[in-house]
Amino acid sequence: MMTQIAQPNPAQNPFLPSQFTAPKRLPAIIKRAVGVGLSVGVLVNAASANVGLNEPQASNALNLPSGNLLNDAPNNSPNDAPISTAMMAQNPAKSSSTVRDFAKNSLNNQSLNLNSSQAQNYGNFGDAARLDGGFSLPSVRFSANAHAQNLQNSANLGVSAANPSAVNFTTPNLSAGANFQEQRRNKEIAAWSLRQINASLPLIDDPWAVQQLVQMGAQMNALVRGQSLLSVVLINDSNINAFAVPGGLIGMNAGTILSADALDEVASVMAHEIAHLSQRHYEHNLDNRKKFLAIGLGGLLAAIAASAASGDAAAAMMIGAQTMGAESMAAHSREHEREADRVGQQILAQAGFDAKAMPRFFQQLQRQVSLNRTANAFAPSFMRSHPFTTERLSESTQRAANFTAPTMTQKQAQAQAFDALYWRLNYLSKQANETELRVNAKHSKGAQLALAMYLADNQRHQEAQSVYQAGQFDSDDVLACITAAHLAAAKQDYQQAVDVLAPCQAIYPERRDLRLYLAQHAINAGDFAKALNLLSPLTFDGSHDVLAWDLSQKAYTLQANHAQNTHAQTIATIHALRARSQLLLWRGQYEGALQANAQAAMHARTDNATMLLTMLDNDKAAIVSARDFKP
């Protein structure tokens, strides 16, 4: 008996988790000061990330049907939940031809003067940085030239035109000094950290929002590091914080973006964290690195557990974790923070952003800390142990005077990109209500798109369509295309959603976000082959793109249900179980991953699928290695 395609509840937003909940917020007096990431810069700093992001995870990701080979799959544990595959979005609205032309031609005028190693790293980021539920560049395997075209088409808004700065600053690159063994170790640590984060933190896994940060990070990373970033994760927390992990993992709280006034302020945080990586601040001393991982991650996970019971308890626990980390590294952190500020500001300017954004953001953070102290609220001692006040602010202000400001065209493009990202995150994190969206939609394209989604998700389809049409968005505006497809999907017209999004995806085939959105709509429309073709470049061996693995699992499961013969059903079942195994691996559920792998191997032996069996054996070895890894 064939199982019908599951249709989403029309009352729910198909791009949001079915159990998405707004983050638990700390008292207003401390919500934006606890866990300031600019003074952290590493995983221990993630302890300050008072989380409130991803949805609870407690459903069966495979949805095993009755009456076919998938009945042999293992049962799920309570923690064995699928990540949300429907949280999706797209690129900044380019409402004027001037901005669009600048974005598409920005690389032609750039003067970043990348060396060959950096250029290769930049071009191959999508091939090397395997995406997970967090941020990363499109992981489609194209040539470096194709990646360059992608950066043009995707409005690489940070690339500087003619002169990125008045003075030719050279950012020190220490990453080349790491030997092969150290680089491998760091990659393992970053992958281990990513699995822990996927398993424990509430993440905003909206593909479009993630891609904006990933592109920004990849551009800056290519200026100073010889290794690509592993991933960027967006944490659903209202506090200001960011962190970096040796091996190229960067995390940022949604609150960092929602607290900023401009894209260059967000970029200043990203540049600071990349500077920590490029200068290898947490690799010089192995003992200190271990302390950071043990204290920082342990404190972070403890804070997550505490947040379920009390926001104040979570804040106290985060501060305690920060304090322990600060005490263990006080002798090193001061100089490292100064250097990360200095190198980060140079990266910021070379990437085409305003160097004055860093001291502006420092001033905002300083005001929050002062407010906390005045109100006798939590005052993280980690901040007090770092040169975060007048000294860092004064130094960054003086340095900013040496850099040339971005052009007006760059500023306009960055302003539109920030507008789209800001309101997208406001919508996804449930921070904005209808009244606020309506008021701002009068002068904001980003708010207009967010309002259209809000109305569609509340079954007010005619209003949603009217709001969208009033925007008169360009046909090649990626975020507008994604939103238009979303409006169709909200009415359960999945074929129309495919028809709307397919032309846009054909223009930008290298974009990860468009592949994921289109694959989701194709699955709902019953075109499983199309969905799997779109997902194939994202689910290669070693990929940590949990959204892609989740969608692949669903597509193969439905394909098995609709197979015309036993052999086709078995092959689809094997692939579904393998995708499930990889999904569980990158969510840190190792035993479940091994069980799914064993089920897939059993079917492969039954069908004498030798090549698939070899692949599954390799997968098993990788799962065991990941399970046994100790940082």
User: Tally the helices: what do you get?
Assistant: 25
DSSP strand content? under 5%
Mean pLDDT equals: 73
Task: Specify the biggest β-sheet.
Answer: 3 strands, mixed
**Percentage of residues in helical conformation:** 55-70%
How much is the radius of gyration in Å?
23 Å
Please give the alpha-carbon distance between the first and last residues.
48 Å
Number of DSSP strand runs = 3
Widest sheet: strand order? 1-3-2
H/E element string?
Answer: HHHHHHEEEHHHHHHHHHHHHHHHHHHH
Can you summarize this structure?
The protein has a domain of 313 residues. It has 25 helices and three strands. Strand 2 and strand 3 form a beta hairpin.
Architecture overview:
Its cofactor is Zn(2+). By secondary structure, the protein is mostly helical. The protein has a domain at 97-409. Helices cover 57% and strands 2% of the residues. It has 25 helices and 3 strands. The chain has a 3-stranded mixed beta sheet with strand order 1-3-2, with helices on both faces. Helix 9 crosses helix 10 and helix 16 (445-457) packs antiparallel against helix 17. It is globular and about 70 Å long. The termini are far apart. Mean pLDDT is 73; it is low at 1-168, 303-332 and 376-387.
